[in-house]
Amino acid sequence: MLNQLTISELQKHLVAREVSARQAVQSCLDQVSASMDRVKAFLSYDETDALSAADAVDKLIAGGATPATHPLLGAPIGVKDVLAVKGHPLNCSSKILGNFKSPYDATVIEKLRAAGAIVFGRLNMDEFAMGSSTENSAFFTTRNPWDTSRIPGGSSGGFRGSSSSG
Description:
alpha+beta; Amidase signature (AS) enzymes; three-stranded mixed β-sheet; 4 helices; about 10% strand; globular
């Protein structure tokens, strides 16, 4: 499965044109969709935007881009819900911000994209990043994908796949 490759493994396949960035992102989107009810790592994701960004990366690769020029070339990345991504929801895992959408990209998002990353989703976290377990999101608790009786740990549990007791 493409969503289980390391970034460097994925990049080898992308540069050799054995797979496309679109296929890699679709694999991640499929996995998120299949595990969302069980794991609840993502607050939101924009499939159309993600696939469009993947198509742009495929064009970069066709134009000669490599991991040497773009270190995160083709890497699908979910971001913590405190990072501003233009046009995407930004509520810091709090209901108080309602349906706020970011009017700009955070500097880190600009840098991730410049490095060739494909930003595709918003990860659950403790409300306003005030916590250490992702049990204090205003929406739901994130579960460990390897053992759903546990939490992944950390204030941005959507990032982790390790097992921490909860």
